[in-house]
Amino acid sequence: MVWKVLQGLLCLLCGILILAVAIWIRVSKDGQEVLTSGDSDANPYVAVNILIAVGAVIMVLGFLGCCGAMKESRCMLLLFFIGLLLILLLQVAAGILGAAFKSQTQRILNETLYDNVKLLSTADESGKSFQEALSEFQEEFKCCGLVNGAADWGSNFQQHYKSCECTDTSGSSCTTYDNKSVYKQPCISLIKDLVAKHILVVIGIAFGLAVIEILGLVFSMVLYCQIGNK
């Protein structure tokens, strides 16, 4: 029973950890505004939103497992087992779908970024939030423009050039545009790298969680059978 209580506590702690990491990724300003601003319906952070939901469910199941072990309740242990099994099956299904639609996901991300290029040169209010988001991203990651460099800003360049002004004395990462020294590298590759990094974090959590879930299934069924034999 001690092992099952520990397993339940481990699931509870894992749920808290998953929630914490997923929420950190979700609220992180590193490129989130660039991806979610604009007029595209695609949201690359949908996997993180799902992970937040999974973390919350795992916390509830962990609590259920602890109570079931301490009270030796077969009903609670069975609910814990079924819930954990369903989550594991959903994770496997999500992993298969993610692998199958990987190219489509990359295409959607590319379309999102390329569609938002026109927002940089617009004077309408619809593009203000995206322009501010990219300005912050440029300043932090030392890049300029989204796809074609500083030219993406069009007539708005003079308003936002400070965020991509290049101060590199060697000049290897700088270029001149409209008599201003700006960063040569567009931001699109850095945004893609950032998304890839976040995806790796999500995958790592999912694999670690799967191992814990399998252990939870084994221990809960063993204890369920032991209680039934008493």
Automatic annotation (TrEMBL):
Protein name (database record): Tetraspanin
Ranges annotated as spanning the membrane: 46-70, 77-101, 199-224
Disulfide feature: 143-174, 144-164
Pfam families, per the entry: Tetraspanin
Keywords: Cell membrane, Disulfide bond, Glycoprotein, Membrane, Transmembrane, Transmembrane helix
GO CC terms in record: plasma membrane
Subcellular localization: Cell membrane; Membrane
Highest taxon, organism lineage: Eukaryota
Keyword Ribosomal protein: no
Presence of keyword Disulfide bond: yes
Membrane topology classification: Multi-pass membrane protein
Family of this protein: Belongs to the tetraspanin (TM4SF) family.
SUBUNIT field: Forms homooligomers. Interacts with MEP1B. Interacts with integrin alpha3/ITGA3. Interacts with RICTOR and MTOR. Interacts with ADAM17. Interacts with ECE1.
